[in-house]
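Interim report, section 4.2 (structural modelling).
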Amino acid sequence: MIFRVKRFDPTCDRRPSWRAYTVDVRPKMSVLDGLFWILEHADSTLSFRYSCRAGMCGSCAMVVNGREALACRLRLAHVAAPVHVEPLRSLPVIKDLVVDMTPFFEKYRAVDPFYRAEDPAVTGPAAAPAVVRPESRELVDLQLGCISCGACYSACPVVALNPEFLGPAALNRAYVLSADEREPAAGDRAAAILGDGGVHACHAVGNCVAACPVGINPLLSIQLLRKGATDR
Amino acid sequence: MARQVDADLLIIGGGGAGAKAAIEAHDLGLHVVMLVKGFLGRSGCSIFAGNLNWFGPPGDGARPRSEAERQKQTLEFLAKYTHYLGDQEYMKNAARFTFDHFYPWLEERGLYILRDDDGAVVVDLPHGTQAWATKMGMSGQIIMDMMRKEIFRRGILVLEETAATSLLTAGGAVVGAAALDYRRGEQIVVRAKATILATGHSNYLSLRSTGTREGTAAGWVMAFRVGCALQNIEMQWYHVSDVAWPRSWMRLHLYPNPLPGTAHQTRLYNRDGELFFDGTSVPRNPVPYIMQLKALVQQVRAGKARLDGGYYTSYRHIEPEVVRGHIYQTQFVEKLGLDPLRDVIENGVTWHMNVGGIRVNGQTMQSDVPGLYVAGSVSALVTGGLPNVMYDGYVAARHAADEIRGRPLPRLDQSVVERDLARVAAYFRTDPEGRLLPAQVIKRIRTVMWEHMNYIKSDATMRRGLERLQRIRQEALPRMHVGSPSRRFSYDWIEAVDAEDMLDACELMIRFSLHRKESRGGFFREDYPITDNARWLRHIVGRLENGALRLEELPVDLRYAKPAEEVADFFAVDY
Amino acid sequence: MVVFVLGHLFIMHYQHVPASTGAAFVGRRWAGAAWRAFDWVLLALALSHGVAGAHAVLRERVRGPRARTVLDGAAVAGATIFAALGTLAVAAGSRAAGGSPGPLSVHAWIPAALLGGLLALATLTYLALLGVAAAAAAYVLRRFPAGRWSYPGQWAFALNRIAGLGVLGFLLLHVADVAMVPFAPDLYDRTVAGYALPYLAPMEILLVTAVVYHALNGLRLMALEALDRRAARAHVLSFAVVVVVTALLVIPSVVVLLQGRP
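Predicted structure of the assembly:
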């Protein structure tokens, strides 16, 4: 199976280039297994991140045949040859498939992603209800398991067009907090949600929904935040 | 010259232990710097932690009656879990911490744990071993995500993708560490009043491993080189029911414990389709992992299974709605293209956690060397689990804070610093003779460990393994080179350093193993298939003396739980 | 707004052929207050939606706060001018009728400029569509993946934006030409006759397509939001429905156009 991998070392290359490798594929291999094969048999200079190999750590998000994916979770049986592998988009490339996640996390910070319910500076004591019913958590739990891999951020054309847009992951986090019964409505967060880079900059493209490797629907979060803002 | 960073407290490692220590120390007013080999809270095994353990061991269909009884059962469980080699006083304190601090602290920070109307935590009756929380089965990921945010909100300096390469000493004390930021290709020196080593498990030493690429035993080796004792590092714990293939999926474990909320357990079948392990047939068995291993050995000897495949986990005897409700495993099995209701899943053995590690004081987390604390799975206290490792981090941070309060920054010994930096810098070479890539050397080491130091081993296989490791050290290490002249994100460079660490760790591990002449829990020798509590319920402790390993045996703390048998058939006992 | 736009579209492109709607036609319409109100409301809604769209695009394209303020101001000012022009035309509309010259008829450059603008807009639109087609071809041939075109949402978004910008461009030209009805009916007739150029025929169909698609896609997004759809599949399916319905609605206008052209 042919792999074409986008290679780029900003310290010595002027622009990225594609390099092709013929990978010896065995059944059930994932894209990550293919990259391991390249590393071991063809080209040890290829750089990519990986860690847990089980779709939990979010290190190996990349673009495979034009779509964001976790390399460890995507089986080669489900991708067409030749397999084109690129780094995440809208983030600066450090080398080859490794990107600098700093802009992603800076925007994440901008929504004040911290749970504040027990922070006495924000809320008085006993603001949270004594018992939180699981029913009230249906949507929160659905949207909670973000592994901050950056796939949605990379897939979003609005992030690419509008440098101020906070992106799907950050706004999803803002929703998870705002929908948590125990969490007070925090002022800073509301300003970020409704500001220039907030929910109103989203054009409901929906790429984030298709790209999320853990089944979160960030667009739904953004829409619910918008609804919440109009209701208030 | 390398960049230098100063800190009150240096924490090496970004898993549960390191993260908890960083938060605790920061809140006590210390200036904390973290060195993290991968990403904070994203690389270690802990992110994959399955369910929220609620110690509480299995009861007889009801919650333990009294707190005292619960404590007793918890200790018996943990003692068997560590094959009676764990520190029992430590385990008692860690279990208390789980109730008194771990769960309330996480709940205050947003972890949702289901409670009934009276506020009591809901556990999965009838077994009572697991609390129900959000994202059941992925609690580790949720908890580590919370920890990461707690560290970010405090503005603690976290140097990610920066691996510690050696501990720096001056005047007999640890005064910081040298590190390699492989993202930028720069060496860094961190100077600190105290250091907490929390690098996690060392289980990436063999071809098949549940560990992440960070688990190359750097923690053990760095501590050993500055004079710390290692303890029981031969006690490697293996997983039987991990996916056989492909490589990227072998991390997926098909837990033999009861499925959450039920009494159902998986079954194992051999090559010929014969059932050879059913967890429910071992009454009140607290450690089904170990019993699976013992059963598998007999299948392998009979030629009906291999360690790397040819035997299978099955969920087919369990009602479909129970299997579907057990989302955690089934979603992965389905990704492999298998239907857990109809198909069996081929398994292979993997190296999992370490029971042993760096010897520390279980009350303070202090090592044998001043200035160095050790927390989490890298120590010899217990096998792991988020509640326990966070207890370690919590204790280490508090004791370190007490020790260094008001103390000035130590002076570095420049000759030590330069020697350590030069050792690492020397691995960035593009053209030695023979040309071997670090990844190829690492693969050779891991192959030797798989072939000669696996679950089934004997004096002969281990000595052969030792010979092959020595040949790698003499022939392969000097020929390592980096594949690219670019220093940016060079895994080659850090892997070259790892290769040397792994060789040291693997040799030590084999030497410890040769010394223990019995079989116990995760440790099995074909030439000594008995569990000999009378002779070998001892810690094997080794340290560097005059450039050589010196091994000794030290007594084990058995104050709360002890095995009934003096000497027993390894296959007959349940620990 | 969707009702007004689709109503307008239906009358102009399904009942009639634009090239046949001269000043006399418009004059007849504007004899009644109801149609004048209809056209005025449509004008106001379309221009404000256009300003909102332009604002969104400017947000993405322009970073400096001062440049943003200036450009936003320019958009509002432009819209106000066109709104005034349109209001004036609608208000004055009933006075003029037939193909007689009006006070502005001496300025023969106006129809030429408008037609030139339309040709330019058509050329831009054709180029944009060629670009999209090239992306589609690259995706189908899998030479290498370019952009985010493997996501259906990307197509929905790109088409929505191209359609929106195209319709806005046409709207401005259209307001300018209709404004001639009261003041230079003869020139208006000459302009409208120019629309019959074969080069502009695809543009006419594209205009209908763009308006229909933009409206339906907007309805789709509102529906998805209102229905709280959680599955990724809902986005893909609803987009497919929009594409099919757009095609079904455009076909009759093509037929009308082909029949109506000489």
